[in-house]
Every structure is written in structure tokens, then in C-alpha cells.
Amino acid sequence: QWRLVESGGGLVQPGGSLKLSCAASGFTLEYFAVGWFRQAPGKEREGVSCISRTLSNTIYSDSVKGRFTISRDNGKKMVYLQMNSLKPEDTAVYYCAVAPTFSSRCDTLIGDYSTWGQGTQVTVSS
Prior knowledge:
The relative contact order is 0.32. Helix content is 0%, strand content 48%. The chain contains no helices and 11 strands. The chain is mainly beta. Strands 2, 4, 5, 6, 9, 10 and 11 form a 7-stranded mixed beta sheet that branches.
């Protein structure tokens, strides 16, 4: 059974940091691009970042560029999202997802992602 499990969310003050983790099981992670997405209350799910299967390509949304860093360890079947300088508008449920691909690139198009985790809540508030 293919499975993604996110962890690392929580409550943090503005300006603080969190590192989200996504553990994959049941499939070979290196064959997939991985994305992080988020959904705030009353808003649509949006792409935050992605990393290609070859680690050669990463993409960040304009709202997180320069503050968030995505990384992956295919051997450990883990993907990470380091989030620094957090803002209240970063508050959302964060999801990791995988997209099967032969490409050395990635994208944050929700429709390209076939398997999703259950999400982890990130709340940025003083």
C-alpha cells in the first residue's frame, strides 16, 4: 500500500521556523517528483514547492521563495520542507504528494499528483 505521512507541524510564533517531514512507504520514492501543498481555511489548495526525482530541479511559490527549502533523501524515503521566517499567512494544513514521472523536472500542478498524505497543521500566531 502506497502511503505518505507528514509530521512536524505545530504552533509557532511569527518569525519562527518549522521543519516538516514526509515519510513514504510502499513504493520507490526515487521514481517520483514530490510536492508540498497547503490549504488554508476557506481557500483552495495551493502548491508551495516541488523537487524533481533527480533532485536537479526545485520550484517555490512566490509567497515562500527565499524562506522555505525543500529537500529529499531517496534512500531514506523522506522529503522535507524547512520553513523559516514564518508569517501568519503561512497558517494552513500542509500536504506532501508524489507525481509519477520520467522527467528531471517538477511542477506544482495539483492534477499531476496521484498520492497524497493526510496533512499536518501549521499555525503561525503570537
